[in-house]
# Entry
Amino acid sequence: MVTVDAEDFCLEYVDALGRVRRGPLEVMWSARFENGGPVRGFPSFKGQRNFTGRYWAATGTTHVGYESWLERDHAMHLDFDRRVTEVVSQPFRLSWRPVSSRGRVRHTPDYFVRHHDGSVLVVDVRPDERIEPDDAAKFTATAVACGRIGWGYQRLGVLDPVLSANLRWLAGYRHPRVMCEPVAAALRVVFAEARGLLHGVREVGDPIGVLPVLFHLLWRQDLVVDVRAELLSAATLVGPASETVGAEVGCGGVTSTLVVGG
# Structure
């Protein structure tokens, strides 16, 4: 149980002009974090055991930073979620003073996610086996802070391997340059009823030219497959988005704790 004074949560972020802004959480929560910058950088050095980088998100057409392959996979999963409009990495720094401590504790969540309906999800990414007691306390306090202002919070662990592999494949076709509207229109007609992937593709034309467009439509979820059931194959059932053939929405397929909804 984390006990924090009701007025003690503070938030710090970097605005669009690069200025650091600080204040009480109840005052700062309405900031447009997606217009600012990360509150800290992503260090890279020789011998580093984790992998840092930037993932290009089709959602918002922006780069999202990550500090591990696991964070990259979750950024990709959020990019695939049709409810999401923005994903921001290292969006702000929270600080608070637990009643059992004289000093302030600080924590920077991994992702800030805004949805089409205006709701917010704050995400930390950490595998179960790498959570130390101090980490658990920070995650719990962050969940408490988010709950006070109506935000959701999740600590996400390892992504399901089948889901992860399928999303990595489809993400290779997420850029709009892959789109060819005449081919896409033909694919929508062919897959108006669910059928095998390769069978439908061959009805449209040469798979070499048709498959990239199909994968782009699957990424956009204009057409859908069950990305959690099995690895994509020639026999995978593809259908229209209006049919329930396993469209992936949200953060299913992960180890997750401390789920708090506003």
